[in-house]
Amino acid sequence: DREHFFSHRASGGRDGRMIAYAGFPAAAVTS
Q1: What is the largest CA-CA distance in the chain?
Q2: CA nearest neighbour of 12 among 30, 31, 25, 22
Q3: Radius of gyration of the CA atoms of the chain, in A
Q4: Are 24 and 31 in contact (CB under 8 A)?
Q5: Are the C-beta atoms of residues 10 and 16 closer than 8 Å to each other?
Q6: CB-based contact 5:27 (threshold 8 Å)
């Protein structure tokens, strides 16, 4: 999931960056 997240973040660009920032802590806590 982490790899997919990184790929999505790079592909998303600005939106992906925002999502990545908000998802980073959430993903870490979920993991």
Answers
A1: 24
A2: 22
A3: 9
A4: no
A5: yes
A6: yes
Contact 9, 17 (CB under 8 A): yes
**Residue 26 confidence (pLDDT):** 58
Tokens representing 24 are: 């980073």
How high is the pLDDT of residue 22? 59
- pTM value > 0.70: no
With contact defined as beta carbons under 8 Å apart, do 8 and 21 qualify? no
Per DSSP, helices labelled H in 1-31 are: 2-12, 14-30
Which tokens is 31 given? 């993991």
